[in-house]
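Thread: quick sanity check before group meeting

JM: Hey all, I'm pulling together slides for Thursday and realized we never actually wrote out the predicted structure for the chain we discussed last week. Dropping the sequence here so it's in one place. If anyone has concerns about the input, flag it before I start.
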Amino acid sequence: MTQLPASIIVIDDDPYVRDVVAAALRLYGKYQVYEASDGDEGLSLCIDHAPDLAIVDVSMPQMNGYQVVRALRGDPATSHMPIIMLTARTMPRDRMTGLYSGADLYLEKPVRPLQLIEAIAQVLRRSAADRLVTMRAYVDDPLSIEESL
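JM (edit): ok, ran it. Output follows.
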């Protein structure tokens, strides 16, 4: 029996970034990839296709990535979904906001394709219980965010 590849949604308003990330995921990771150009479209695709993981940009019009992550975490249908934020926003405050919003991992652009594939594999291995333990650690000790990444 052949196992289907994991499915991933890439939510980014920049078509070039979406194309490059999607191509790398298909080529290196052999993932099934869905693409969304904004947060609203991304949320709809997450509901319709129930992907195994979402990669979300922060800076998008109408609904930013933090809002997308909070919406995904707040919906019982998607609350368990692993989420990676992939963004050009590099300040510690941005990273903390992303992780406090519920992202499992916060990566900075540009990212090497193999680095992204490794990050995806790492996040997909985490259980929901592991995710909760990590989030509690962030709340208890905000400095642990920087140390853990």
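AS: nice. Confidence is low (pLDDT under 50) at residues 145-149. Helices lie at 15-29, 39-49, 65-74, 92-101, 113-125, 128-140, 143-148.
JM: adding both to the slides.
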